From TrEMBL:
Organism: Aurantiacibacter atlanticus
Top-level taxonomic group: Bacteria
Name this polypeptide is given: Ubiquinol-cytochrome c chaperone domain-containing protein
Domain Ubiquinol-cytochrome c chaperone: 35-169
Entry-linked Pfam families: Ubiq_cyt_C_chap (PF03981)
Annotated family: Belongs to the UPF0174 family.
């Protein structure tokens, strides 16, 4: 890749950094862990980042302007997860394999959420979340998590493209 392409690529990612940082910050809000019973572990936090990122990506898909940028936001996710894996001591040979699993998990969640959010009932969404999230209470359906995820999805739909790019996830 030429130096010019690298510079241009960074500039594109710079535009999406506020959105990426807000996605991560939203995924770390205490209510997800206290009220919605998501495990406050490394895996649980990954689940939350994946959930919030999926909701943001689904919102971006609805916009002609932002739809083409979903890949760039996903690249920020990949770069951050790659760095986190390396910082936690995962060796170079295993990072690629782990990243493949993470991307597969994200893709599966996107598809499941797209379908579940089309249904106005939270029961289907709760079922999808129960399969894809690490929860402290795995015996009961995560209705609080489903309600909060749906509320965030509704909020994202009301945010303008410019506000979303600036990192605003709620009106």
């Amino acid at each position: 890749m030429s130096i010019f392409k690298r510079l241009l690529r960074r500039r594109e990612h710079t535009e999406l950094r506020p959105l990426w940082h807000s996605t991560v910050a939203t995924s770390r809000e205490e209510d997800w862990y206290l009220d919605c019973l998501v495990e406050d572990t490394l895996d649980g936090r990954f689940d939350m980042i994946s959930l919030v990122l999926s909701l943001v990506l689904l919102r971006m898909e609805q916009s002609e302007r932002l739809g083409p940028k979903t890949g760039q936001l996903t690249e920020l996710f990949i770069a951050d997860m790659d760095r986190q894996l390396r910082d936690s001591g995962v060796g170079d040979l295993r990072v690629g394999k782990n990243m493949g699993k993470l991307m597969s998990a994200l893709g599966g969640r996107l598809g499941s959420l797209r379908s579940a959010l089309a249904n106005p009932e939270d029961a289907e969404l709760a079922e999808v979340l129960a399969r894809n999230m690490r929860l402290t209470d795995e015996d009961s359906p995560p209705l609080a998590l489903a309600a909060r995820a749906r509320a965030l999805n509704t909020d994202l739909a009301e945010v303008s493209d410019d506000a979303l790019l600036a990192g605003t996830l709620r009106p």
